[in-house]
Amino acid sequence: MVRTPCCDQNGMKKGTWTPEEDRKLVAYVTRYGCWNWRQLPKFAGLKRCGKSCRLRWMNYLRPNVKRGNYTHEEEETITRLHASLGNKWSAIAAELPGRTDNEVKNYWHTNLKKRQKQNSSSVEISQLEKSSSNSTASIITTDNCLSPNNVDDYYSSEIQEVLMEPNNNNNNNSNEAMKMIMSSNSTSRSSQLETVVNKNNINNVHSPLSPQPSSSGSEISTTTTDTSTSTSRASTDNNNNNATTETTTNYSTNYFVGDLSYNFNDLFEDDQAFQHELFSDSFWTEPFLADHNSYIPTTTTHDHDYLITNANSLMDSDDLLSPTLDNILLFTSNSSTSTAGYFYEENLVGLL
DNA sequence: AATCAAGCCAACCGCACGCTC
DNA sequence: AGAGCGTGCGGTTGGCTTGAT
Questions:
Q1: Residues A179-228: pLDDT tens digits?
Q2: Which residue is nearest to nucleotide B9 (CA to C1')?
Q3: A67 to each of A71, A92, A258, A260, how far by Cα in Å?
Q4: Do domains A1-63 and A68-119 have the same CATH topology?
Q5: CB less than 7 Å from strand C: which protein residues?
Q6: pLDDT in tens, A37-92
């Protein structure tokens, strides 16, 4: 069952977010950034207050938000920091990459606090946690890094040819390459997409309409999150464009279970219907166009931990008005685990 | 199978802080 | 200086899930 949505006196929707709302918010923020939370819902076509949008993004939709079990180390960190800082949840969460203050707070109240009480008299907390912890650690790895030395391994020869064609300018070459990639099989698509970016020597490029990378956020990291929960997700009826939901009673939770990249990669892999919806006029509705014509965000906050790169902008194109299959690439970014200029398989969150 | 209770956690609310003018 | 605005933080709520009976 889904929590019954309600509206406040201003007609703003409250309660559980629907997949459709999530899509709109993700699409808008990844394209334009969170330049003003209060104004954002209006431009994004959401009947939510800015606070609600911010909370949803920060705690749930943002790339690199780690979900699932806490590791022993994370539990220790929370326990230790709470002992010294008290209920400074944001400060504690800052020491736990991927965890939000809200999540840490909830975890403390539901697990650690209880445990600490039970064992404070005689048992060392760390020993207890060690015995009780069977959680799956998140893995930070550089194994899938595509360095400039091996990017060509990831190109198909066809695409390399297009990119190297002397008579085309870089923009046309790249757009053509992108189209070829999109028509290729899904297993090679993501790696080829990111090498298009590498091939154009793009490390820190962004659209004037997309969020600026944070001061430390131009690099790319890779984070794999445990997604042990079974997943179902929304799909779209290709014919009538009506969203339907598969096998879910709490679809907003199930839809985004695990990390965001899972979902986007999933869409990327096999959900042509949803991709189709994303690129249709009905999804990219008036707010985007109005935004584009009337307001160009020029400021962003410094808490972006993702890099949204507009492929057209990477290719020096001015045409951003019509989102198409070849114009927006979304990577996650985290300066703490990155190597500048490298693009990682897992960090290609998707193509919008 | 049905009911109940406890636990979990996403989301809301109010306040405080910082920035701009 | 202080008013207005946007954002962040911590406390709280309440609907959903799960396990016990």
A1: 443 344 433 444 443 333 333 332 222 222 222 222 222 222 222 233 32
A2: A106
A3: 11, 16, 6, 10
A4: yes
A5: A 1-4, 34-39, 50-51, 54, 58, 87-91, 101-102, 105-106, 109, 249-250, 301, 303
A6: 888 888 888 888 888 888 888 888 877 787 777 888 888 888 888 888 888 888 88
Positions of strand B less than 7 angstroms from a protein CB: 7-14
* CATH code for residues A1-63: 1.10.10.60
Please give the helix or strand (H or E) that residue A31 lies within, else none. Answer: helix A19-32
> Is the shortest CB-to-strand distance from A17 to strand B under 7 Å?
yes
Give me the mean pLDDT over the A27-46 stretch.
80
Q: Give the C-alpha separation, A68 to A224, whole Å.
A: 11
Indicate if CB(A22) is under 7 A from strand B: no
Domain A68-119 has CATH 3.40.190.10: no
Which nucleotide does the CA of A58 lie closest to, via C1'?
A: C8
Across all strands, nucleotide nearest A250 (CA–C1') = C16
Interaxial angle between packed helices A260-270 and A186-199, expressed in degrees from 0 to 180 and rounded to the nearest 10: 110
Domain ranges of chain A: 1-63, 68-119
